[in-house]
Amino acid sequence: MSLVIGLTGGIASGKSTVSKMFKEMDISVVDADVEARLAVEKGEPAYNKIIAEFGAEILMENGEIDRPKLGSIIFHQVEKRLLLNEIVHPEVRRRMMEQIEAAKQNGESVIVLDIPLLFESKLTYMVDKTILVYVDDDTQLQRLIDRNQLSNDDAEARVRSQMPLANKIKLADEVIDNNGTLEETKKQLTDLLNRWGIYSK
């Protein structure tokens, strides 16, 4: 019997850091962002649908989707964001389910799904337990500005495009507070996994 854990957080909350910690424990991680990138590569069904809806102007010279250009459209236009999600999300779900099944066939007892929009996209049915990586609003905004070299307005728009972390806390089974040091975050994760009876190194 495999336990499927849904790992989520807000943009720049440190979810990728916790995801890396799982990998260091030799626990399989299926990354929704990676699957989303693969789902929109040239030749994939979602790629053709996106071009049909958004036009060829979102393409780079090599024919691949210009992700920053597409991102600037969807972060400021709700209806365009919803349209893109309708195209990409079913493909991502299909790809993730295939990876879960493969991991189960390999006899893996724990599988982590790293899904930024776990709650927004109503994907909790795919997992048994949920972990939210949390930071306070000011920390989240500053990390996003520093990491992505964004203006304050662009950073705020990206944060607003997701469900507030305060709302996600109410939905998660467990919360990891990532306002502190890496060591503090790692301790919270290992303590949590021990409580769930999962071996952690």
UniProtKB/TrEMBL annotation:
Locations listed in the record: Cytoplasm
Stored InterPro entries: Depp_CoAkinase (IPR001977), P-loop_NTPase (IPR027417)
Annotated GO MF terms: ATP binding; dephospho-CoA kinase activity
Pathway per the UniProt entry: Cofactor biosynthesis; coenzyme A biosynthesis; CoA from (R)-pantothenate: step 5/5
Record CDD domains: DPCK
A GO cellular component annotation in the UniProt record: cytoplasm
UniProt-listed Enzyme Commission number(s): 2.7.1.24
Keyword presence, DNA-binding: no
Keyword Cell membrane: no
Binding residues annotated for ATP, in chain numbering: A12, S13, G14, K15, S16, T17
Reaction catalysed by this enzyme: 3'-dephospho-CoA + ATP = ADP + CoA + H(+)
Protein's recorded name: Dephospho-CoA kinase
Organism: Neobacillus vireti LMG 21834
